[in-house]
C-alpha cells in the first residue's frame, strides 16, 4: 500500500464495487439530479441491489422506496446523497447510524458557495469522522465503474460510457459531461470515471492510489484545479509510473498565475506557482497536457498501442502536402524518419507505381486504393529499422476509404509496433474513422497531432528506462549549528539573517564559503585580512541593513592592510551617516575570488509543492532573461544535472565558443546540500546564493553572497 | 492593378468566369479523373456551355462530344486538360489553334516526377507562350467558383462546397480534398477554391492579386510548399491588407529546415529558411498558421464576425472548469477579461441565481437553461467595456442545448460585437453546434481555440491601425565608392573584402566607422595613431588572411607611439611566421572605443525572400543564445524598432536593473543605411557588423569589426 494516501485501498474499492446502493433523496421528477442518478444506475444494469430513499415516494420506477435509510431492512454498502445541501447532514447522520461506511455526496451548496456552505461542509466532515465514513464529493457529478462485474453509473451524466482502459478523475463535474460526450463520439472507453468535486474527504491522491492497483485501468487521466498536497501527488505519481508503468496525463488549470507575490528574493519573484507546477509534474513523470483534446490524443496512443521501442517512425500517405506537414511536426517533436532497409525499399519499389515516393515519408499517391496501403505497410512494419507507423489518408474521388480503414486496422492489430492513423477531412472520411476507432486504433484528425502523440509515447518510454539513484544524504553536515542560528533569529522576530549568519549556516552544511571573519575594529579587520590573504572584501554586518551597497556598506578588491584599514574607517563613517539608527555588529572580512562564471542557486517554499530549488546563470541571465529552472526537493542527482542542462545558457558552462569548461559537479554538490538544508530546516523560507562563482573543471565553486529569509 | 503579378486581372478572371468550357480528354469511365471532372461541372449547374472533347466518345452524359477541340463550332473560353501527360502538348497545341487563352491543366506527370516530366512541363510552357495562353497547373485538383453567376466545379473533388466568403488557394491537391471535406462538415463556405499544382504559369501571386479584387472573397487562405517569389508575395500581401483589409492566413510546410547551410557569417548560419519565412510573413501581415484546424479556426472568426474594437472579452459559461481553462488561454493570448459596468453587474445579479458567478468569467451554473444565457448575454453585450463575447456550454442532463444554440445565435446576429462559441463534447452537443454553424456563428470544439481565434482577430485589427512610414532614402551616401570597391574585389575573384575595404564601404554609406588609416611602415602607423588619438587598435590587412586573431594579426588597446611601433614590428614578424605566403597590404590603425553594449547587425540573401537583415546583442547572445531577429529588406523604420524590441535581451538596451539606456535610435539609423546598401549593391552576399558598440543615449554607436562577403 502507498504511504501517500490517507485512505486504504479497500475503503476506495468499496465505493467502486458496492453490492448494494441507497440513493438518498431520490425522486420521480425526470430531468432533476436526484431522479437522473437513480435512473442512470437502474438503466446501466448495476450488478447489485438498488434502494431509493425518499421522504415522499413509495416507489420509484417500480422499485420499493424507503422513507429513511435506516428503514432499509438489509445491509447497504454505499449511500449516494442527492438531498439539498441544507439537509445533507441529517441524512448523513442516518447513514452513519445505519452503518454505511462509503458515500458519494452529489449535492452542491457547500464550500464552493462560501459562507454558510463552508460550515455545512465542515459539518458533514465531522459526521463522517464520527462514523468512520469515507466519501467522494460533495458538489460532484458522481462515479462510474464500467467493469461488467459492477456496471455502476452513479452519476448524472447523460449516458454510461463504453468500457475501456482509461481511468479518469476530475475536479470539475461540468467538464466531465463534455469529456464523456467527446469520448463517446470517438468510441473511447473508460475503466473508472470519477468526478470528485470539493474533495472534502477522498481526494486525487486516494483515487490515484486506487487506480494504481485497479487491473482495469491502464492509463490515468486527471483534471485538477488545485493540487491538495503537492509532495504526495508527486510521490504517488512516481510510485505508479515506476511500479506499474501506467502513464498519468494531467490537465491543470491556472496556467496564468495571479502574478508572483512580491517576494524579497529572486527565487521568490521568479517561481510563479504555475512554473513550479510544470516543473513538479515533469519531475514526477506526470504528462501535463494543454487541453482536453491533447489529453485524449495522448491517452489513446497509450491505451491502445504498445510503447515504441525508439523514435524511428514511418509515415505512409496518399497526399504529399500532409506528408510534409507530418514530417515537419515529427522532427520538431523529436522523432526521426526511419531509413528503410534495402529489402523494404525493394518491396516498395515492386508494389508501388513509379510515380510513388518510396522513401520515407512514403507517398502511395492520390489514386491509391487499399492494396497499396496494405503492401507497403506490410513490408514497412517488418523492417527492423522502423519503430512504428503513422498512416495518412485524404479523400480523393477514387479513394476506397472504408476498405482502407478495414484493411489497415487488421494490419495494425497484428503488428507489435505502435500504429497511428489520420484520415483527414470530416464527412467523407467519417465511416472509415468510425471503423478505425471502434477497433481501438488511435485516430487523429490532424497528422500533426498524430506525430505529437507518437512522440509523447516515445518520451514516456524513454523516461521509464532512466534510472534515478537513491537520494544522497550527507553525514558531514552540522545541522545543530544551523538550527541554533535560525532559532536565535526567530526568537528575535527577524525575517532576515545577517550575511554572517547566512555564511555560518552554509558553512555548517559544507558549502564552499570563502574564508572570512567578523571584525569589530580596524585592527581586527587588518589581522583577519592578513590571515586569509589578499584581495579581500569588506561588508557591513547589521540586522537593520538589508541593502548594504546602497549605504556604502561594501568595499571590494582591497589588496593591502592599509587599504583594509582605510576602507574600514570610511565604511563605518558612511553607514553611520546614512543610517544613524542601525545597530552595527561589525564588518565582515572575506576572501575575494576573481573569475569564474556567476550562477544563482535559490530556494523557496511553494504553497502547494513545498521546498523548490532554482538554478540559473547569475546577473542579467536571471534578472533580464529569467533563464532559470526549478525542481521540487528532495531531488535526485540525475535530476539536478537535468535541471542544469535545461537552462538556455547551459553551453556557457560547457566550454562553448572557446570558453573553458566549468565545474558543474561542484554546483550539483552545492544544490544537493542546499536541498538537505531545506529539508532539515523548514524555518528557512527563502534563500539566494547569488552569485556562486563556478571555476574551471576541478576548481570547485565559491559562495560569494547569500541571503536567507525566515 | 498590382505590380507584383505577372498576369492581368482579366486573364485570371477569365478562368474563374468562363461562358464556355471544353473538357479536353473527358471520358465515361466513372471514378477516373477525366470523367469525374466532366460530371462535376455538369452536376454543379455551370452557368455556361460545356463541351466534352474525347477521341472515342460521341457523347458523354447525353452531351455531344467532339473529337478535337478545334472541331467545336463555337468559341470556347477555357479548356480543362485531363489527357495523360504524354499527349498534353498536342492537345494544348490544338487549344492554341482554337484561340483558347485560358486553361486548367489537371494532368499529373510533369515536373513533380522529375526526368522526362520536366521536359514535358517546359514543352507546355513553350506552347502557352507561343499562343499567349494563361493556365493553372499542371498536377492539380482544379478550380471551383461558387458564385451563383458561374457555379463552376472544375475539379475532381467529391462535392461542390457551399458558397461563402473564404478564398482558398493550395499548392497541394490532395490537401484540398481533406479541406473541402473538413469544411463541409462545419458548413464553411468558399468563394473561390483553387488547387494550383506545379504553378508552371499562374502562381500564388497572380491568384492573390485576383482575390484582392474579388468581391465574393473576404478572407484569403493559402497552403504553400515553396514560395515562388518572396518579395512579390510580401508586396501583394501588404497591398491586399492595407487596401482592402482582407486578412491572409497561410499554412506553409517545411518548418524544419534542411539545416542552415554552412555559412561564413553568423547571419548566414542563423538565418534558416524557416526563420526568415516566419519573419517575412509577419512583416507582410500574413498570419502563419500551425495546421489546417488553426487556419479554419481563425478563418471563421474573420469571415463571420466583425473585428473586435479592442481586447476586453467576456466569457459566459455553464461550467467552472472550462471557464478557468478559457481564462488561462485568453490571458496567455493577450486578451483581457472585461470589467463589467455597475449596470451590467446589477443586471446579472438580478437575472442569475445566487450560486452563479456574476464576475467575468460569468458562470451561469451547470443547470442553466437558455434564459440564463440570453439575459446575461443581452446585458453583457450592451456594456461599453466589453469588446466581444465568448460562450461556453457543457452538456448536463438538463441543458437544453438546441434551444440555447438557437437563442444565442439570434443574439449574436444582432450584436455588432464579435461573438464566438464553444459547445464542448461531440454527440450530445452536435445538433446545437449544427445550428450555430449553419448560421455562420464561429464555433470551436475547445474553448482554448476560441480564445486564440479571438486574439488573432484582435491582433489583426491592431495591425490594421498601425501606420508604417514611407521608406527613408538617405541622399548623403556615396554608392559609387562602394560599387567600385566591390567591382574591384569581384574582378580579382575574391569572396571576401579586407576589413579596410569593408570599412571604406560602410564609411561611404555614412555608418559610424572609427577614425582609421592604413600604415605600410612603423613610422606611418605611429603618425596615424598620433593623428587619431589613443588608444588605438592595429589589425593586419591581407586578402589572404580571414582569421586575423589566429595569426597574431590584431593588437588592442595601444596607448602610446612606442606601443604602436613595437606592436607593428611584432605583428609583422608573427604574421610572416604563421603565413609566409600571405600578401600583406599593411596594418590598419584604428581608434579604439571602450564601453558600450555590443550588438550585431547582419545581412544575408535568402533564396526565397532576398536580402534579410538580422539584429541581436553580440557575443554570447548571438553565439550561444541565438537571440536574434530578422526582417526582410526594404524595411520601414517602425519595423526596425519592432525587430529590436523583439529580442529577448532587449531590456539590456533600455536600462534594466540600473544599467544605462542605450542609443537605440543610432542603431536604427545604421540598420536603415545597411538596408539601403543591400539594395544598391546586390553583389554583397553576406555582411556582419560584429560588434557595433552602442553608447548611452545620444552617444551614438561605433562599428568596430566588419566582414563583407561577395
Describe this structure in words.
- 2 copies of one chain form a homodimer.
- By secondary structure, the first copy, chain A, is α/β, with parallel strands linked by helices.
- The first copy, chain A, folds into 4 domains: about 10-300, Succinyl-CoA synthetase domains (Rossmann fold, 3-Layer(aba) Sandwich), CATH 3.40.50.261; about 305-465, Succinyl-CoA synthetase domains (Rossmann fold, 3-Layer(aba) Sandwich); about 465-515 and about 595-710, D-amino Acid Aminotransferase, Chain A, domain 1, CATH 3.30.470.20; about 515-590, 2-Layer Sandwich (Dna Ligase, domain 1).
- Chain A is about 40% helix and about 20% strand.
- The first copy, chain A, contains 23 helices and 29 strands.
- In chain A, strand 5, helix 3 (about 85-100) and strand 6 (about 100-105) form a beta-alpha-beta unit.
- The longest helix of chain A has 19 residues, at about 445-465.
- Mean pLDDT of chain A is about 90; it is low at about 255-265.
- Chains A and B meet through helix 5 and helix 11 of A and helix 5 and helix 11 of B.
CATH superfamily of the largest domain in chain A: Succinyl-CoA synthetase domains
Indicate the percent of residues in helices of chain A: 25-40%
Query: Quick one: which chains have the greatest interface?
Result: A-B, 77 and 76 residues
Residues in β-strands, percent of chain A: 15-25%
User: Total number of helical segments of chain A?
Assistant: 23
Tell me the span between the first and last alpha carbons of chain A.
Answer: 36 Å
| CATH structural fold name of the largest domain in chain A | Rossmann fold
**Quaternary class:** homodimer
- The CATH architecture of the largest domain in chain A can be given as 3-Layer(aba) Sandwich
Q: What structural class do helix, strand and pairing data of chain A support?
A: alpha/beta
Tell me about the biggest sheet of chain A?
7 strands, mixed
- Which strand order does the major sheet of chain A show? 9-8-11-10-12-13-14
